[in-house]
């Protein structure tokens, strides 16, 4: 029987166990998006005992940025800091990928100096043109190239929580009537084009996609659409699907207090694809996390806020479970 502490080989990367630290923004970067000592220390403290660290989202272009101290991966000048980061975490024998993101309509004009772009007009954002879509796809490609050059074991595309890729997929935010909007087929098109382009850069490393599997809204994305999308993502070359949801944020208030709040969606997606699945949502208990693996509900378990509070949670969980599993 497979347990939480068992390794998982994904392509050329061996994950030493099934515990994932999901991307959690710290706002500890400099105003230019560079890695700082504080950011590095924050992750060093939490990396021991992990199977995989997913570094918080880095913005792929200035226009896709949302906050002043957000981490960036939009410029070659950031390579040095990112390389130091990966060396330090690899020294702890922890594999790591970086989440790459574009805020779309959630980007902030007061931070970027530019009008935000989105699939359809929303807040301050204007509908993006085909030329602008092409530039953004290439920004994702170049950011992935930087991630690989800096020594990350791969990238995670941020397709959840209401940011640009999720804005294309969700019928709540995509009201286009061209090839990028309307039918499910068309709403998947832009994220799939991004996947195809970044795939060229990833090689034997990992391409993860964080999917917004459920908008938790009657006319938003439903899990059935996400299952179709997940299959397409895998066909396009995604190696791991990280199942989250909530178009207005990752921790919908209605789900708080429920351990494993996006596990039902993760299980449904796992049933239709043949790549490892990460499950997330309010997980606090090592035995519960272990059961998710033993019962094959998911392949990897992400534990976010608990690891923020207790940086040694993963090490303690492994020690407790080694007696039982
Ligand atoms: C402060 C904070 C920042 C977050 N930043 C990100 C992020 O950069 N990217 C992302 O995909 N999710 C982000 N999340 C969501 C987490 O990755 C995770 O899905 C969520 O916290 C639920 O897991 P948990 O209950 O184990 O914390 C963030 C969550 C918190 C609390």
Summary keywords:
8-stranded parallel beta barrel; two-stranded antiparallel sheet; 11 helices; 36% helix; binds flavin mononucleotide; alpha/beta; 325 residues; 12 strands; TIM Barrel
The helix content, as a percent range, equals 25-40%
Mean pLDDT: 97
Please write the string of helix (H) and strand (E) elements.
EEEHEHEHEEHEHHEHEHEHEHH
Radius of gyration: 18 Å
Judging by the overall fold, what is the CATH architecture? Alpha-Beta Barrel
* Fourth-level CATH superfamily: Aldolase class I
Individual helix count? 11
Quaternary: single chain
Q: How much beta, percentage-wise?
A: 15-25%
Q: Are there runs of 5+ residues with pLDDT below 50, and where?
A: none
Bound molecules: flavin mononucleotide
Strand order of the largest sheet: 3-4-5-8-9-10-11-12
Approximate shape: globular
Describe the overall structure.
With 325 residues, this protein is of the alpha/beta class. The chain has one domain: TIM Barrel (Alpha-Beta Barrel). The chain is built from 11 helices and 12 strands. The chain has helices at residues 37-47, 79-90, 109-112, 130-149, 164-169, 184-202, 223-235, 263-270, 286-294, 305-309, 313-322, and strands spanning 8-10, 13-15, 19-21, 52-59, 96-101, 117-118, 126-127, 154-159, 206-212, 240-244, 277-279, 300-302. The protein has an 8-stranded parallel beta barrel with strand order 3-4-5-8-9-10-11-12, surrounded by 7 helices. A two-stranded antiparallel ribbon has the order 1-2. The N and C termini lie close together (9 Å). The mean pLDDT is 97. Bound molecules: flavin mononucleotide. The site of flavin mononucleotide has 21 residues, from strand 4.
């Amino acid at each position: 029987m497979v347990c939480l502490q068992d390794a998982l080989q994904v392509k050329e990367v061996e994950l030493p166990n099934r515990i994932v630290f999901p991307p959690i923004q710290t706002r500890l970067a400099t105003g230019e998006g560079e890695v700082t000592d504080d950011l590095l220390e924050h992750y060093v403290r939490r990396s021991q005992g992990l199977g995989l660290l997913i570094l918080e989202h880095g913005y792929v272009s200035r226009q896709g940025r949302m906050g002043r101290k957000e981490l960036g991966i939009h410029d070659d000048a950031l390579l040095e800091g990112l390389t130091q980061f990966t060396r330090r975490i690899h020294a702890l024998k922890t594999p790591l990928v970086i989440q790459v993101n574009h805020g779309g309509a959630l980007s902030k004009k007061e931070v970027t100096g530019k009008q935000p772009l989105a699939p359809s007009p929303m807040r301050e954002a204007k509908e993006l043109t085909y030329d602008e879509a092409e530039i953004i796809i290439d920004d994702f490609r170049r950011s992935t190239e930087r991630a690989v050059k800096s020594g990350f074991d791969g990238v995670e595309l941020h397709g959840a929580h209401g940011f640009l890729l999720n804005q294309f997929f969700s019928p709540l935010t995509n009201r286009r009537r061209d090839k990028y909007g309307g039918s499910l087929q068309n709403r998947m098109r832009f994220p799939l084009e991004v996947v195809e382009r970044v795939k060229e850069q990833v090689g034997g490393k990992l391409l993860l996609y964080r999917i917004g599997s459920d908008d938790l809204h009657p006319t938003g994305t439903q899990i059935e659409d996400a299952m179709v999308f997940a299959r397409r993502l895998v066909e396009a070359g995604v190696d791991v699907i990280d199942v989250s949801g909530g178009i207005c944020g990752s921790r919908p208030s209605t789900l708080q207090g429920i351990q494993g709040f996006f596990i039902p969606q993760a299980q449904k997606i796992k049933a239709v694809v043949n790549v490892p699945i990460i499950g997330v949502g309010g997980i606090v208990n090592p035995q519960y996390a272990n059961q998710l693996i033993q019962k094959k509900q998911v392949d990897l378990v992400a534990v976010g806020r608990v690891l923020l509070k207790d940086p040694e949670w993963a090490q303690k969980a492994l020690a407790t479970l080694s007696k039982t599993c």
